[in-house]
Design goal:
The chain is an alpha+beta fold. Helices cover about 45% and strands about 15% of the residues.
Length: about 375
């Protein structure tokens, strides 16, 4: 797939097939990848305005499409009700497949990438049709299945994030595979540490950090695994200031995929319920993520992540201005603050109420007051998902 790229958006790894200046398109004697910043600067100084890039032959690790030049956000092509049926099926298959893969690792067996690749295609296609559906069904989580559900959610969020950034279908598939496998090194740490029903001690945390080192040989044993999928796993604990692990990479040493996965991994961990902590509301998680920019996390990329999932993400619990609580059921592509909310609880009276679907885009008398943590409010949204 050959597309035009503004010269300002060039980066190492792009496969250039043609150039274009004010006079028109120019042929390239020897098409190939950009391997240095010096070459990019040379292209700019020669008056080139546009570069034609073959994305299928490119290494897109460092490529971020300019959001101002990007095509409009793709419309949802299926309804929430229709896509939810498929999303529920994908979630069941995902849990079964990933559970078997984890069991194989515990037994010393290698992972078969073929069924995971097929599953990743289904995930990408569902999110392409209507991303709300898979995020809504994935929001139903168990505190006793953290490793499994965290891996699934990282995969879903990485695909949704990549779609928002304008990355192509093949890249999204690699992000899904990487998300599903990003924590496989945890199958090699001590079970008493992995499953401890309390916060880890400093010594236990140092042991847990070994999962990043232990992931690499497991990934090496998976034939056909792309470098991009590996990056999701190997870079998601790296920080821009060099304080991350296991390599302590700094700044531009961390690829786009690594920066994305760091944001997604932290966000999902903060908003998950664990046996030793309640889930945090997305808005509270965003505040923590914001506090980590620009020192540890990419601030511009974090803003794009929030634009993608919304201030009040699908599947999260919110309070409306009439003191009712409900689940964000469907996003509003034109106004993030006016989603469809499935109301089922009265905060005023402290009891469950009749279900009502409220489209805030049609209600000038109602608005979202704040995001809620189900555990802290003692509200169980499970029957209403």
């Amino acid at each position: 797939m050959v597309q035009a790229v503004a010269v300002e958006d060039l980066c190492e790894g792009l496969f250039v097939v043609a150039l274009e200046n004010a006079k028109g398109r120019l042929r390239v004697n020897k098409p190939g990848r950009i391997h240095s910043i010096d070459l990019i600067n040379q292209i700019k100084t020669n008056g080139i305005k546009t570069v034609w890039v073959d994305f299928e032959l490119s290494d897109l690790s460092f490529y971020v499409p300019d959001r101002h030049l990007r095509n409009p956000k793709p419309p949802k092509t299926t309804s929430m009700d229709t896509e939810r049926i498929r999303a529920e099926s994908i979630l069941v298959k995902s849990k079964d497949l990933l559970s078997k893969a984890i069991d194989n690792l515990y037994e010393g067996k290698n992972i078969d990438i073929a069924p995971i690749a097929d599953l990743s295609e289904s995930i990408v296609d569902s999110i392409r049709c209507n991303p709300d559906a898979i995020h809504c069904v994935a929001a139903l989580r168990s505190k006793d299945s953290y490793l499994l559900e965290h891996s699934l959610n990282v995969a879903f969020l990485m695909v949704s994030f990549g779609r928002h950034l304008g990355l192509n279908q093949q890249v999204l598939k690699q992000l899904a595979i990487g998300g599903l496998l990003h924590d496989i090194g945890k199958t090699q740490v001590k079970l008493e540490v992995l499953n401890k029903p309390a916060r880890l001690t400093p010594e236990e945390f140092e042991h847990m950090k070994l999962h990043q080192v232990l992931s690499e040989p497991l990934l090496d044993c998976i034939p056909g695994l792309s470098d991009m999928s590996r990056q999701v796993s190997l870079l998601h604990h790296e920080k821009l200031d060099g304080s991350g692990y296991p390599r302590g990479l700094y700044g531009d040493e961390i690829s786009l995929v690594g920066r994305m996965s760091a944001i997604v991994d932290i966000y999902d961990a903060l908003t998950a319920t664990r046996c030793y902590k309640q889930s945090m509301s997305p808005t509270a998680a965003f505040k923590i993520l914001k506090s980590m920019t620009p020192k540890q996390l990419d601030g511009e990329l974090l803003n794009e992540f929030i634009r993608n999932i919304g201030v009040y993400p699908v599947g999260s619990l919110v309070e409306l201005s009439d003191n009712r609580a409900g689940l964000v059921w469907e996003s509003n592509d034109t106004s993030f603050l006016q989603p469809v909310v499935k109301c089922f609880y009265s905060l005023k009276y402290g009891r469950y109420s009749d279900i009502e679907m409220v489209n805030l885009a049609d209600r000038t008398d109602l608005a979202i007051e704040r995001g809620l943590s189900p555990g802290k409010e003692n509200i169980d949204p499970t029957p209403y998902r």
